[in-house]
Structure formats: C-alpha cells, structure tokens
Design goal:
This protein is mainly alpha-helical and about 260 residues long. Helices cover about 55% and strands about 5% of the residues. It has three domains: about 1-60, no CATH class; about 65-210, Intergrase catalytic core (hpI Integrase, Chain A, Orthogonal Bundle), CATH 1.10.443.10; about 230-255. The two termini are about 40 Å apart.
Length: about 260
C-alpha cells in the first residue's frame, strides 16, 4: 500500500472526520523525500523509498485581493503588521523571507533588497518601490538587526494579528501567501514581463511564475477592453509594424530566458 494511501486512511483510523487535503499530504511527502535525501547524504540509509512517489493533484486557489480589499487590510492591520503587508505587496516576498529580513540586506540608497533566506537557497535582489521606501523609512530600527521587530525581538509569527485584521476588515478566504499572488497579478497587468516577475519572485522555472499570475474577473475584463481603442481607430502601417516587432522581441526573450 502506498504512502499516500496510508496517509489518506490515517484520518479514519484516528476517527478524524475531515480527510487531509491533497496539499497537506504533498507537503508531508515532500518533507519525507527531503529527510531521506539527507539520510542518504549522511550515510544513514542507502536509498530513498519515497523518491519515485508522485504528488497528488492540488486544486489551485485563486485569491487576488481587490484594490478595496488591499486598502481595508492595510487600514485594519496593527502597526507591526502593516509594514509587513506592504513589503509583501511591493515585492512578492514570502512570509519567511520577510520575517528573516535584516537591515544589512536593505539598501534604501541604491533601492534594493537582497533576499538571502530564499526557498530555493539562491540569493536574489528585488528593487524597492517608492511606496516601500517610505514604509521602510518609517520602521523603527532601534538596535536590532532585523527589520521587523516587536519589543526588541524579531517577529516570529503574525498569524493572530493577520487573522484579526482580516476579521475586522470582513475579508474572507485569504492567506498571507495570497499577497504574493496579488503582487504577481497586478505587476503583470500593469506591464511587467513574466521574466522580470520570475526573477523577483525567485522562481527557477517561468512556468511556476505563470501559476502565480492569476487574474481576477475585473482584471481580465480590463485586459480585453484595453485593445478596443486600437481596433476602433485606424492606425498607420508603421505603428502596427512597430507593435508586432516589439511583441516578437518579447517572445524571443522569454524563450531564451526559459
């Protein structure tokens, strides 16, 4: 019997009514794979019994905050949480990357954040927007090396503050990770290319970036409506040629980068 099947039946054995989600089983399976890989590296075992086990299919949850929801969330967040939310919305950084961010990795003069504790282990540089610059300037540095601190200690968790802000703002079905989705979607809609978004998010494969670049119904509608002026008004042949040429260059760059 497979590891996945055993895990699915585990809930029944323990008399738990709700079956674990596929995402939960996948995270546990990923942890097992990593543990066995380390065990092989340290000569504790000779093989990885779960190496060939495939992950279960996960249902992608599209949750992009609307502009109104973003403003409400920022208004309802407490003083410690608000700059953290701004950082996520302006950079697409993960929660762990934000909470482990040190002032030594923030250069407001050159306008870059250097992410060291990345999920894939690779460092990356993220440009700091004007909005985020103002936010970080107002963060009290104190004597700590970490950017986000509370009472002189680095913030380890903000789940309670996050849930309280959502509750006060009436925002439902929203995870902190959805701020990463929101960043990618709005950046893409406002003209950023997938290659740049991939580098900012720290993905090794541009296909992963495309999964994050979800669109809300309103953004989709605005996207299709954006072509209306082009189709209604006669354009010069030279202008059409320039548009086609530009799109061709973008496509080539994406293929080369991928």
């Amino acid at each position: 019997m497979s590891v996945k099947s055993e895990r699915e039946k585990c809930a029944k054995v323990r008399k738990i009514e709700k079956r674990p989600a596929n995402a939960t089983i996948n995270r546990e399976l990923a942890l097992l794979k990593h543990l066995f890989s380390l065990a092989i590296k340290w000569d504790y075992v000779d093989s990885n019994p779960v190496k060939g086990v495939k992950f279960l299919k996960e249902n992608m949850k599209e949750r992009i905050l609307t502009p109104d929801e973003i403003q409400t969330l920022l208004e309802e967040a407490n003083d410690n949480l608000r700059p953290i939310i701004m950082t996520a919305l302006c950079t697409g950084m993960r929660m762990g990357e934000i909470l482990s961010l040190k002032w030594s990795n923030v250069n407001l003069r050159s306008g870059f954040i250097q992410v060291e504790h990345s999920k894939n282990g690779k460092m990356r540089k993220i440009p700091i927007s004007s909005a985020l610059t103002e936010t970080l300037k107002n963060v009290n540095k104190g004597n700590g090396e970490y950017v986000f601190m509370n009472r002189g200690k680095p913030i380890k968790s903000m789940q309670e503050a996050w849930e309280n802000a959502l509750k006060r703002g009436g925002i439902k079905n929203c995870r902190f990770h959805d701020l990463r989705h929101t960043f990618a979607t709005y950046a893409l809609f406002n003209g950023a290319d997938l290659v740049s978004i991939r580098d900012i998010l720290g993905h090794s494969d541009i296909r992963m970036t495309a999964r994050y670049a979800h669109s809300s119904e309103e953004l989709k509608r605005r996207a299709v409506e954006s072509l209306v002026p082009l189709l209604k008004q006669p354009q010069k042949k030279a202008e059409y040629s320039q548009i086609i040429h530009t799109l061709g260059d973008l496509e080539k760059n994406m293929l080369v980068s991928n």
